[in-house]
Design goal:
The complex is a heterodimer. In chain A, about 55% of the residues are buried. Helices cover about 35% and strands about 25% of the residues of chain A. Chain A has 16 helices and 26 strands. In chain A, strand 15 and strand 16 form a beta hairpin. In chain A, helix 11 crosses helix 12 and helix 11 crosses helix 13. By secondary structure, chain B is α/β, with parallel strands linked by helices. Helices cover about 30% and strands about 20% of the residues of chain B. Chain B contains 13 helices and 22 strands. In chain B, strands 9, 11, 14, 16, 17, 18, 19, 20, 21 and 22 form a ten-stranded mixed beta sheet that branches. In chain B, strands 1-7-4-5-6-3-2 form a seven-stranded antiparallel beta sheet, with no helix packed on it. Chain B is elongated, with a radius of gyration of 25 Å. Chain B starts with 5 loop residues before the first strand and ends in a 9-residue tail after the last helix. Classes of the chains: A alpha+beta, B alpha/beta. The interface between A and B is large, with 78 and 80 residues. Strand 1 of chain A pairs antiparallel with strand 5 of chain B. The structure holds adenosine-5'-triphosphate (ATP), adenosine-5'-diphosphate (ADP) and magnesium ion (MG) (2 copies). One magnesium ion binds next to helix 3 of chain A.
């Protein structure tokens, strides 16, 4: 298919390298090159992108290692911007930052990645079961459905007329198996005849158009209690997870990638460890999506640009990922994208900017860091797609602040563009209280928007949640006093608050990702746990008021049952939760009666 | 292509470790350079920046004795390469892979680019094989697995070398009887540190299975930038071509980073934190990521870099960026050291990220994950109770808190503390962990399951004779 995204230069034009400085290459005779055009650099034809033009000179960032590259070598223009190929076959794949399939690279270059590899992102030989969804004579505009393909067991790939195309259908293929690049539909449009295959290209730095942005109202439930109950993210929302090393950014993101209630997951390993991607690759195919009953890998796309891979490709991996996410959003899906870690992306910007000898702003980061962050997070959202459906992209970005100090530029700027902040706490991580999301420093601005959803499950939800949160907040003040005078100097009802807060932390907030049951906690169970804890807190307070003591409370049989309910009661066993509730209620009632 | 060995006479500028050469042509980025001093001494260097007529070269042998006119520069049109061969085991080399033990260069080895190439994540095998180091604070709480990169964060005067040597001596798998080959890289450390390792390898009879790359404190500082790469290039060959299990010990990463800073400063680059270059993270990753396992390949690279934290500050860029790349860290604690605890492994900040998949049923023992988690939770309580006790006095503590204080003592004295030549089995380590936990009330142990409590807490296991 012809591509509306072409830039101006003729693919034939060839420039000449004049300087090589790491991933930055300067070239002359580039008057015809366009800004952000893809070029092939040197005799090895390394992939690069034009990032600055000046008087026929171009500055190019190269996505591969430039060792051995010499001034005088040629540089070839391609006439197109850095794009991804979109079509069936993306799901279940693992790509590098510029959408090269790592499986194919391994097949050609072995365990270590060679330079100059240019495998096609989608398997051209594979056929897909195409089902037409339009008829000859139909008038198609961008976003209109013209066919469908069952891409994986759990995901139907909806073939939509790409932006920039449209017209009357003159031919549509019959149902059957076709290769991704085969023409399946011909259009006669105002701009002439057009051909559609199941695939098209889209430039990664350009957001895909939507018809309208919508308000958010539904939570993206994640199965992590501290998130869902205390700091929920909405479908289409943006969240950041900042934390020092080893505090749990990756584990949290992986947990979300497993259990978040999205139909499609795009997981970007941006400048992080190779083994973490291997871990996902090994684990996801074996995990079953609790909603579709299918392998989790069937809804997942991985982008891996690990820390030892070229730094320029790290910069672009974020855009590659979000473009793939938007593509599935356009089909009407709820997509969640995780970027681990946006700090490595920002550092890639810094490194490239330094090589370009630009004026640095804070801590060496370029002055355009905030605008780049904004343009990334702004691509999140709940939208009405061109085809009129609701689709969403939720973005969750990890932030790795140097020294774990949140006052640094990337964390600070990120805060301006997200509405959900899951602050990881070193103290909690050290005590192996996971997820180490601080209940004091985190916040979610989506709470009011999605409360209605929870209240449709339990009208008391907001009150229950607030009750627990208040106890946790109260604890902070009490601890401060206790540190000065000793906890024994506090009156019993305050010591009870400390006790209950401890119970909330152990029974509710702490959630071990490796626990067979508790790695995922469905909303209904979360509500039951809330009810039990709130009931416990209220009743225990009455016992104390009636003259009972803390040892009486501590001695209760139900105490250990509460602490262990998360990992002993199966997730869907509401009857058992109800029974535990009654037991707690009953035991405390008896205790109260003893004193009354 | 161009014939190799373009030679130029004279350099336009010498600045710290860098020389600037003008009037050149056809020189490639990153290529190897031979510099001949006016007195005829040859040194190696590498191109850092090249334009049509000028190149910036970093000189590994140092720039002393170079002059503007008398220096000759030969561009070799190839990357920096080192020989790799199994026969390098038992030998000592300098940072650039040249023999330092008076014996001739090994013959018949391949030459490999020291930069290596990134491992395709798709080709990796996730590391899961438990390594028993015989050190409880590691095996029980921060388990090392084969193919992991686990650094030691230390400080000046702390016994990191003794611990690394103990690990090298004792490390083994539970079910397999293959020993590790060792590749040892030293950057900027004193002669006696290198000698300590040699002695230790000799004593344990493994020296013929060790290759050493030494770039000591009095060697040119820029050579340190290549030293770990030479070592890792050999390690990759041994592991992935020869199928061997390799333990790479690298010391001291702090010196490496300082050399990197020196080059960056000489180039006038915009520094990021504490004067270190903004690409310190990527540069360190290009070393640390050269560890692991590959699918379909028998061998493995387990990396144990050692670094000294400047002023014991874990948030200093060197430990900080290292922690962001490696799969955990063993942190040494000065306070424990001063109280005579060996090994002074800090309880809370130490972490092994690969532990989760390397322990438990069928790997170590079913209760291992929960016991470790419980010990961390309890020890962290100890820390806060100690802080409280220092304000209100130990007598004022509640009875439970007093038990925690007692647990803390026992934990440090019997679980963490052990002999430098004491090699504990994992069962013994687990038993010591339970023994410490038995000080606490049963109800406090909510991280272990009821079944585990019944099995290991309620009836103390019979004393095994493995101590
Ligand atoms: N934006 C793009 N980014 C990356 N690759 C692209 C892009 N557009 C096209 N290609 C690649 O270029 C090749 C030709 O593309 P395509 O068939 O879309 O071009 P076309 O304009 O239809 O060409 P023709 O005029 O020959 O039909 C294909 O192999 C395709 O993968
Ligand atoms: N929710 C969790 N449950 C259990 N363990 C966790 C959890 N989160 C983190 N951890 C532990 O902490 C370690 C570090 O977490 P990770 O996500 O890799 O940190 P980061 O990405 O912030 O450096 C993990 O290897 C794991 O052992
Ligand atoms: Mg190869
Ligand atoms: Mg991480």
């Amino acid at each position: 298919m012809s591509d509306p995204q072409r830039t101006s230069s003729t693919p034939a034009s060839v420039g000449e390298i004049v300087r090589v400085n790491g991933p930055i290459v300067h070239a002359r005779n580039m008057a015809e090159a366009g800004m952000l055009e893809v070029v092939e650099v040197g005799e090895l034809r390394l992939i690069g992108e034009v990032i600055r033009l000046h008087d026929g000179m171009a500055t190019v960032q190269v996505y591969e290692n430039t060792s051995g590259l010499r001034p005088g070598e040629p540089i070839y223009c391609t006439g197109r911007p850095l794009s991804v190929k979109l079509g069936p076959g993306l799901l279940g794949n693992i790509y590098d930052g510029i959408q090269r399939p790592l499986e194919r690279i391994r097949a050609t270059s072995g365990a270590m990645i060679d330079r100059g590899e240019k495998p096609e992102p989608l398997d051209e030989a594979k056929t897909w079961p195409f089902v037409p969804a339009c008829a000859v004579g139909d008038d198609l505009v961008p976003g209109k459905l013209f066919g469908r393909v069952q891409e994986t067991g759990s995901v139907e790939h909806r073939l939509l007329v790409p932006p920039g195309f449209g017209g009357k259908v003159t031919e549509i293929a019959a149902a059957g198996d076709y290769r991704g690049d085969e023409i399946v539909c011909r259009l006669d449009g105002p701009d002439g005849k057009q051909e559609l295959s199941m695939c098209h290209h889209w430039p990664v730095r350009k957001p895909r158009p939507v018809s309208q942005r919508l308000a958010m109202g539904e939570p993206l439930t994640t199965g992590l209690r501290v998130i869902d109950t205390f700091f929920p993210i909405a479908k289409g929302g943006a969240a950041a997870i900042p934390g020092g090393f080893g505090t749990g950014k990756t584990m949290t993101q992986q947990s979300l990638a497993k259990w978040a209630e999205a139909q499609i997951i795009v997981y970007i390993g941006c400048g992080e460890r190779g083994n973490e991607m291997t871990d996902v690759l090994k684990e996801f195919p074996e995990l079953v999506d609790p909603r579709s009953g299918r392998s989790l890998m069937e809804r997942t796309i991985l982008i891996a640009n690990t820390s030892n891979m070229p730094v320029a490709a790290r910069e672009v991996s974020i855009y590659t990922g979000i473009t793939l996410a938007e593509y599935y959003r356009d089909m009407g899906y709820d997509v969640a994208i995780m970027a681990d870690s946006t700090s490595r992306w920002a550092e890639a910007l810094r490194e490239l900017s330094g090589r370009l000898e630009e004026m640095p702003a804070d801590e060496g980061f370029p002055a355009y860091l905030p605008s780049r962050l904004a343009s990334f997070y702004e691509r999140a959202g709940m939208v009405r797609t061109l085809s009129g459906e609701r689709g969403s992209v939720s973005v969750i970005g990890a932030v790795s602040p140097p020294g774990g100090d949140f006052s640094e530029p990337v964390t600070q700027h990120t805060r301006r563009f997200i509405r959900c902040f899951w602050a990881l706490d070193r103290q909690l991580a050290n005590a192996r209280h996971y997820p180490a999301i601080s209940w004091l420093d985190s916040y979610s601005e989506y709470l009011s928007e999605i409360a209605a959803w929870w209240e449709s499950h339990d009208a008391q939800w907001h009150d229950l949640r607030d009750t627990l949160m208040n106890i946790l907040q109260e604890e902070v003040g009490l601890q401060r006093i206790a540190k000065l005078v000793g906890p024994d100097a506090l009156p019993d009802y305050q010591r009870l608050t400390l006790e209950v807060a401890e119970l909330i932390k152990n029974a509710f907030l702490q959630q071990n990702s490796f626990d067979e049951i508790d790695m995922y906690c469905p909303p209904t169970k979360q509500i039951w746990m809330l009810r039990i804890l709130v009931r416990f807190a209220e009743r225990a307070r009455r016992v104390i008021q009636a003259g009972g003591t803390l040892p009486d409370i501590r001695g209760m049989k139900a105490m250990t049952r509460i602490v262990r309910m998360k990992s002993t009661i199966p997730n869907d066993d509401t009857a058992a939760m109800q029974a535990l509730y009654d037991e707690v209620d009953g035991e405390l009632e008896q205790l109260e009666r003893r004193f009354a | 292509m161009r014939v190799s060995g373009l030679e130029y006479r004279g350099v336009s500028q010498v600045d710290g470790p860098l020389v600037f050469v003008q009037g050149i042509s056809g020189v490639g980025y990153d290529e190897l350079v031979e510099i001949v001093t006016p007195s005829g001494e040859e040194r190696l260097g590498q191109v850092l920046d090249v334009s049509e007529t000028a190149a910036v070269v970093q000189v590994f042998g140092g720039t002393d004795g170079l002059s503007n006119a008398g220096t000759r520069v030969r561009f070799l049109a190839e990357p920096m390469r080192v020989p790799v061969s199994k026969r390098m085991l038992g030998r000592v080399f300098d940072g650039l892979g040249r023999p330092k033990d008076g014996l001739p260069q090994v013959i018949g080895g391949d030459l490999r680019d020291v930069q290596g190439k990134p491992i395709n994540p798709y080709a990796r095998e996730y590391p899961r094989d438990f390594i028993q180091t015989g050190i409880t604070s590691i095996d029980l709480m921060n388990t090392l697995v084969r193919g992991q990169k686990l650094p030691i964060f230390s400080g000046n005067g702390l016994p990191h070398n003794r611990i690394a040597a103990q690990i090298a001596r004792q490390a083994k798998l539970l079910r397999e009887d293959v020993s590790f080959s060792i590749v040892f890289a030293a950057m900027g450390v004193k002669y006696d540190v290198a000698q300590f390792f040699v002695d230790s390898f000799v004593q344990s009879g493994v020296i013929s299975n060790v290759a050493m790359f030494l770039s000591l404190a009095d060697d040119p500082s820029v050579e340190r930038l290549i030293t770990p790469r030479s070592a890792l290039t050999l390690a990759e060959h041994l592991a992935f071509d020869e199928g061997m299990h390799v333990l790479v010990i690298i010391t001291d990463m702090t010196n490496y980073c300082e050399s990197l800073r020196e080059i960056a400063t000489a180039r006038g680059e915009i520094p990021s934190r504490k004067g270190y270059p903004g690409y310190l993270y990527s540069d360190l990753a290009s070393l640390y990521e050269r560890a692991g396992r590959l699918q379909g390949v028998e061998g493995s690279i387990t990396q144990m870099p050692i670094l000294t934290m400047p002023s014991d500050d874990i948030s200093h860029p060197i430990p900080d960026l290292t922690g962001y790349i490696t799969e955990g860290q063993i942190v040494l604690d000065r306070d424990l050291h001063q109280r005579g605890v060996y090994p002074p492994v800090a309880g809370l900040p130490s972490l092994s990220r690969l532990m989760k998949d390397g322990i438990g049923k069928g790997r170590t023992r079913d209760d291992h994950p929960h016991v470790a988690s419980q010990l961390f939770a309890a020890y962290s309580r100890v820390k806060s109770i100690r802080a409280l006790a220092s304000v209100i006095g130990e007598e004022e503590l509640s009875p439970t808190d007093k038990l925690y204080i007692e647990f803390g003592k026992k934990f440090e004295q019997t679980v963490v503390t052990q002999g430098e030549f004491e090699n504990r089995s994992i069962e013994r380590s687990l038993e010591l962990g339970w023994e410490a936990l038995r000080i606490l009330p049963r109800a406090e142990l909510y991280r272990v399951s009821e079944e585990e409590l019944a099995k290991y807490f309620d009836q103390p296991a019979p004393k095994e004779a493995q101590a």
